[in-house]
Amino acid sequence: MVTMAALGLSGRCLAASAAADAAISGTVRDVHGTPQMGTLVELLGADLSPVASALSDDHGRYIMPDVLPGRYQLRATAAFFVPALRSNLQLHAGAQEIINVTMSALFEADGWLPAQRRRADEPADDWKWALRSTANRPLLRLVDPESGSPISSSATEQANRAMSSGRVTLTNGDGSFGAGGMHQALLLNRSLGDSDGAVLRADVGSPQTLYAAGPSVAVSAGYERRTPMNGTTRLVSTFQSHPELVDGASAASATAQGLNYGESAGRGGPATSLGPGFEVLQLASTQQIALGDAVLIDAGTLMEAERLEATRIEMQPYVRVTARPGSEVVVEYRYATGRQVQSNDDLDHLKPELMVLTTAQGRPLSTRGSHQEVSVSRKLGSGTGLGSRVITFAVFSDRFANGAVAGSGVVSQQTLQSAAMVADPVTGTFHLAAAGYAGRGIGGTLMQPLTPALSAWVEYDLGRALRTALPTDGTPTLAAAVAGAEPLSAQAASFALRGRIVRTGTALKAEYRWQQARTLTAVNAYNASPDEAYLSFFLRQRLWCGRWLPQGVDAVVEATNLLEQGYQPVLAPDGETLLLAQVPRAIQGGLAFNF
Fold first, then answer.
1. What is the DSSP letter of 83?
2. What pLDDT is stored for residue 5 in this prediction?
3. I want to staple 524 with a disulfide (CB 3.0 to 4.6 A). Which of 8, 176, 256, 461 is the partner?
4. What is the pTM of this model?
5. To 10 degrees, the CA torsion angle through 100, 103, 109, 115?
6. What is the pLDDT of residues 97-140, one digit of tens each?
7. Which secondary structure element, helix H or strand E, spans residue 43, and what is its range?
8. What own/partner pairs with CB < 8 Å and gap ≥ 24 does 542-549 have?
9. Coil, helix or strand at residue 340
10. Radius of gyration of the chain (CA)
């Protein structure tokens, strides 16, 4: 009887608890009433942190049961749609609220204005392909690996012709976060005369460390198709696994297993895994629509799922509109929430930047922000055989949910457990989370052609960046340096050479980017590439062509912050010195076999 009474009391308590919870459900549709599958619906608390989330099914329906009563906000995000937000939702105990959401397409929203300052072109890879937006122009453009000159093909001339190319790259290097050790990469590209194209990239790394239980893996696949509205649709999916990356929770787990992260590097024996490492899945989709030759609309979304000690899912939409009011002037407006995918062209980089931020407990932090920019570019002079000089002026506004600080040095177990840090023991680098910040700024760019294939770029930015305070009594501690980093006005200037040397066929990007002392983040970060810090260069030189490899063998060398400038020394909790830097020094080199 006592047992039955206890069970009955327990059942009534559980029923009462369940009755006290609230629930929310509804249907997601577009403005035409069509249900939208795969929409991410999030319930946000007072601090805008996600409380619960759900994905809509094939009928557009979603449900979030067992939610604590209270006041919330509801946010819905999906590819090619403007994020929808419902505020001041009051959920009552024991009640189920029905909230239906209507999503507006990016191209139907009245609130969007034309977005992105024109950036310097990276050295064109031999396999890079691009589609043209107007039907009476060539649809396919490849870069000839020998001369560097474009090979054009119209749909009427080569309607059924397929072009394929590939590359195998063997590189080794140090200093680049998540990219140390020996890497073997395979890239296959296939372009069809009907304007479709597909590309596949696989990269397997062999980290030379006792910590990693297996190799690092990065696999990307992309597809592009020309749309009836004189535009293109591109889809790219990427998966990366880095078992060599370690966070504070992994180090603590290793201690419980009798391992010592800080000392095991000197011990022999088999490789030992200190945790699950880092994994990320990215799905990017972009859409371009050309309205004649006057307006180009470029919009898309990056969905990212990261896993360390926990899993984080985030959507990062963008929209960019380019208008040509005259033959000599280009006006652009851009809105972006993530730095990795801000335009259709960003999908050419199939291995995106690896940016990992975490709490001290190993939970991934958001790298999302917001960037709005208006720029005006003007062609100066009538142009010669070398091309015309172009000058650009831009104003922008940035906001970051979390600041991202990089550094180098041997990170001990004690330091990992006391800071919001992810370490890469292969390269001796780490990523550290700092407070978010916001700011506005201006920028200018001058591009001067030097030869038909080589240009000089001069850039200047004035904005806000995280800067450390000057120590009053020696080297500051790591915690004090991060806590004392403030968003202050800062300047940055750079000079670069980008393009190809025609006589030798050398692909070249050499740059020196200066920033004010003690800056830990880039000024105008949404327009700064990951390798833009002080003295950096990229070289690709053809070494040999033959019968079996008609497209030849290339030597590839890439260096970032070669002179190790901009370092800020700090004291770690174990007494060792670590170096904070906008970008630590990194050098990679190897051979590429083209076929």
1. P
2. 44
3. 461
4. 0.71
5. 130
6. 889 998 876 544 333 333 333 333 333 333 232 222 222 233 23
7. strand 40-44
8. 542/145, 542/146, 542/505, 542/506, 543/591, 545/146, 549/593, 549/594, 549/595
9. coil
10. 26
Strand partners, 440: 397
- Give the domain 21-105 fold: Immunoglobulin-like (2.60.40)
- Look at residue 12 and give its three-state secondary structure: helix
| d(C-alpha 549, C-alpha 99), whole Å | 61
Using DSSP's 3-state secondary structure scheme, residue 20 falls into helix
Is the pLDDT reported for residue 26 higher than 90?
Answer: yes
Which pairing describes strands 84-91 and 61-67: parallel, antiparallel, or unpaired? Answer: unpaired
d(CA 189, CA 455): 27
pLDDT surpasses 70 at 160: no
Beta bridge partners of 224: 197, 234
> How many CB atoms neighbour CB 5 within 10 A?
9
Query: Are the C-beta atoms of 371 and 534 separated by less than 8 Å?
Result: no
**Residue that has been written with the tokens 């449900």 in this structure:** 63
Backbone φ and ψ for 269, nearest 5 degrees, come out as 105, 180
Q: What percentage of residues in the chain have a pLDDT greater than 70?
A: 77
3-class secondary structure, 535: strand
Token couple for 486: 């403030």
Six token digits for residue 149: 């000159």
Q: Cβ distance 358 to 421 under 8 Å?
A: yes
Q: What are phi and psi of 575, to 5 degrees?
A: 90, -10
**Which residues is 73 bridged to in the sheet?**
44
Closest CA to 193 of 235, 217, 157: 157
Express the helix, strand and coil content of the chain in percent, nearest 5 each. Answer: 10, 55, 35
Measured distance CA(274)–CA(354) in Å, rounded: 20
* Closest to 580 measured CA to CA, from 391, 404, 323: 404
Residue 3's φ and ψ, nearest 5 degrees, are: -65, -45
Q: What pLDDT, on the 0 to 100 scale, is given for residue 471?
A: 67
In this prediction, residue 267 carries a pLDDT of 38
Asked if 153 and 161 touch (Cβ cutoff 8 Å), the reply is yes
| Cβ–Cβ < 8 Å for 252, 417 | yes
Residue 460 has what pLDDT?
A: 95
d(CA 312, CA 306): 5
Lowest mean pLDDT among 78-87, 177-186, 266-275: 266-275
Identify whether the C-beta of residue 434 lies closer than 8 Å to the C-beta of residue 421: no
Map out the domains of the chain as residue ranges: 21-105, 129-442+568-580
